[in-house]
Amino acid sequence: MADGVAPGRRAVSDAFGQGTVVTVTGGRALVKFDRYPLKLSVPTHSLALVGQQQPSVSGDRDRGTARALPMTMPAPPPPGFNARRAVDALRFGVVPAGAVAEVTLRFDAWRKWIERRLPYEAEGQPTMTEITGAFGSGKSHTMAVVRHVARQVGYLTARVEVDGTYLTFSKPEQLLAELLRTLKGPDGESATLLLDLHLRAVEGDRSATVRRMQPFRQISTNLGVIAELRDAACLDDHTEDLQALISGEDSKTATQLGKEINRSLWRTGRYGVTVRPCRVVPYRLDERAQGFADALMGYAALAKLAGYRGLVVAFDEFEVLPAFLSQAEWARLVEVLSEFGRRLQRGATASGPLGVFIATIAGSDGRGDQIVTRLRESTKGELKELDAPTNADVVELGRMIASLYAKAYGVDASQAQKVASGVALPESAAVAALGGKLRAHVRLLVYDLDSRFGPPAH
Fold first, then answer.
1. Residue where a domain stops, chosen among 56, 72, 92
2. Residue range 331-336: average pLDDT?
3. Which of 106, 240, 334, 410 is 20 to 30 A distant from 391 in Cα terms?
């Protein structure tokens, strides 16, 4: 590794120019280069800190000269690229992740409310919030705003849709793996974000970090394993398998991975060291409820040690379908949610800065909704009801989308606004076909804009 390459440092590459190091994992660094819109993963030996001699390409090392790598990099995106991606999302009724603030009514008010519901404002204690509204009223959009704001103020976020069949609390290990697959930080996404989190947490006093994570046994154990591999400079050999293990995936058993890691450590001369990595959610049925709660609370605590404010998880959908569950599966679901609710209570042992947001359908009184209500009441959580859109909301939302459309395709903004002003809330038939009033309105508005200005050419 090039000396001094660390998160936050400015570095230079022969191929990509200057940039800022985001994370370092083993022998690779994730870097946001100034000339390109995406973060790129490059070998650390190909980087030099700004102000130091730039590393040379292998063919020129003996001569001490440097030349550019013979490769063609993609050009920066053209103007309006991100806006076009956002409009494409709206065209299909999907929340535009890259333009959440630009198409959110009363965004500043939402930001203040969301920040108040995050663990930082609750003295680091876990929080639970239920967001409810009619079908198509904007729950998915609101949950996207929650995640957007949380990342902006320094939290990691994850999301999942509990469909009650494939993804259900009766299968906590599967649910956790799906959640962690969507883990995202303020710096964006990374294929090894969870592993990077462990490495950042043990950058300073490793022993102190492991001790502070002792209430979360599985995570503490895996922290020690990762630190041993880092110190032995053989982490790269096991990066993919470790990322899968700590994410709750079953690509390789913990026992098998442990044998492979110990062989790597012994090859480096660490004969007296034997490590035993472990599953985040244990195999034993009677330990799975606690394991699931430990994992979410523990990763929230680990995020705090790694320099973030905590972890925010969003259940964009929460379905419980008893007809698809056996009696044993139903009992396990209740056990997992009861333990999760107990750990969300203020002052609970082994807790962390975890923010939980759950979206539910207003007026429904199924068993899933009853469970969420009990969970919210037991944790002294907050209920946020989404109001039906007013005519003023429709006008303002149309104005925002028309502005985004004009920016995306370079059309006349005043003409786009004129089209938007003529689109009213759809009637019930269109609402049923397109998925709720606001969603239907947005899709019909983009359709009218496309009809007026012609199909997008790019």
1. 56
2. 89
3. 410
Same domain? 255 vs 376:
yes
Handedness of CA 198, 202, 206, 211 (dihedral sign): negative
Residue 244 CA, chain-centre distance (Å), reads: 16
Euclidean distance between CA atoms 381 and 374, whole angstroms? 10
Q: Count of CB atoms within 10 A of residue 397's CB?
A: 21
Q: How far apart are the first and last CA of the chain?
A: 42
Contact criterion met (CB below 8 Å) for 149 and 452: no
356 and 408 part of one domain: no
What totals of helices (H) and strands (E) does the chain contain, helices first? 16, 10
- For the stretch 194-212, pLDDT in tens is 999 999 888 877 788 888 8
- Claim to verify: residue 172 and residue 203 sit in the same structural domain: yes
Identify whether 100 is part of a domain.
no
Judgement on whether residues 446 and 325 belong to the same structural domain of the protein: no
Q: Would residue 87 count as lying in a domain?
A: no
Q: Is residue 225 part of a domain?
A: yes
Q: What is the mean pLDDT of residues 313-333?
A: 84
Q: Amino acid identity, residue 404?
A: L
230 shares a domain with 146: yes
Check whether residue 290 and residue 180 sit in a common domain: yes
365 pLDDT more than 80: no
Count other C-beta atoms under 10 Å from residue 404's C-beta.
24
> Quick check: 70 and 58 in contact, CB under 8 A?
no
Non-local CB neighbours of 71 within 8 Å, separated by 6+ positions = 15
H-type helices in 31-186, by residue range? 81-91, 107-116, 139-152, 172-181
Residue burial 284-294, b: 16+ Cβ < 10 Å; e: rest: eeeebbbbbbb
Of residues 371 and 185, more confidently modeled: 185
Q: Which domain holds residue 195?
A: 117-387
Residues 17, 36: one domain?
yes
Indicate the residue type of 252: K
> What does the alpha-carbon distance between residue 390 and residue 394 come to, in Å, rounded to a whole number?
6
Contact 357, 312 (CB under 8 A): yes
Cβ atoms within 10 A of the Cβ of 86, count?
24
Report whether pLDDT(245) > 50: yes
Q: Give the model confidence (pLDDT) of 371-393 as tens digits.
A: 888 888 888 899 999 887 777 88
- Residue 61 has a pLDDT of 37
For the record, the structure tokens of 249 come out as 């995936």
Q: Residue 27 in contact with residue 12, Cβ under 8 Å?
A: no
Helices (H), 252-361: 254-267, 285-305, 327-344
Q: Helices in 379-436 by DSSP H: which ranges?
A: 391-409, 413-421, 428-434
